[in-house]
Amino acid sequence: MLSPEQFHELAASRRSTRDFLDTPLDPKVLEEILNEAVTAPSWSNTRPYMVAVATGEQRDRISSALVTRLRESAELKGMGANPDYTHVIPYPEGLVERSQRVGLGIYETLGIDRSDKAARFRFLERNYEFFGAPAALFFFTHKGLDHFGTLDLGLYMQTLMLAAKARGIGTCPQGYLGNYPDIIREEFDVSDDYALVCGMSIGYPSDHPINGWGAERLDISELRVRPKG
Ligand SMILES: Cc1cc2nc3c(=O)[nH]c(=O)nc-3n(C[C@H](O)[C@H](O)[C@H](O)COP(=O)(O)O)c2cc1C
Known about the structure:
Layout: H1 4-13, H2 27-36, E1 49-55, H3 56-73, H4 96-110, H5 117-128, E2 135-142, H6 146-165, E3 170-174, H7 181-187, E4 194-203
Antiparallel strand pairs: 1-2, 2-4, 3-4
Helix pairs in contact: 2-6
The site of flavin mononucleotide has 13 residues, from strand 3.
C-alpha cells in the first residue's frame, strides 16, 4: 500500500505535459496503462466509454488532418466545434478567470505575447500535433448515459494519467482533440452510439521549460460549499 506521502508524490507530480520526446512507447507498456485504468469506478460498472489509440503512420495522418482542419476553420478559440457537445465559450463568470490564468501562464512560459496572434495560433496547432507525442488517445462515451458517461470517462482518464505517471510517462488531456470528430471517426470503427469527448497526448516528457511550469492548484476552501445561514 502506498503511504500518504507516496500517494501525494504521485498525484501532485502529475502535470500536463506539453512537449514530448519522439521516443516511441513500448506497445506493451501502453496496453498495461490502458488496462490499469479500468480499475477506476464506474456507474453500475457499465464502463460507458471507449478509447482509440493512434500511433505511427495513423497518428501522423490524424495529426495532419486535424492541423489542416484547424487552419481551414482559422478559429483561434478552436473550441465548440464538436456537434455532439456544447461548450460554453467564454467560460462562465467565476471560472473564466481561472482559465485565463492558465493561458497566461502557458504564454508567459513560452514567451508568447498575448497580442501575437500568429504565435498563439502556432501553439494551438501544437495541440493538434499532440505536442510531439508518439501516441494519441481519443475518448468516446455512450450518448445514452449523458453526464454519467462523461463522469466515468473522467475517472478512467485520471487513473490512466496516474498509471502513466507511475511509469515516467507524461500525458496531456486535451479538449481540443474532441473538436473534429469526423476526422477521428473516419480512422476508427466506432459505433454511432458513442460520441467523441476529447483526447490525450501520451509519451515521454522532454525537458522543455513548458513542462516545468505548473498551473495553480486551488485550495479546497475555494471549492467548498458552505452551509446556509
Ligand atoms: C478535460 C480536459 C481538457 C483539457 N484540454 C486541454 C487542451 O486542449 N490543451 C491543453 O494544453 N491542456 C488541456 N487540459 C489541461 C489543463 O489545462 C490542465 O489539466 C490544468 O491547467 C491543470 O494543470 P495540470 O494538469 O498540469 O495539473 C485539459 C484538461 C482537462 C481535464
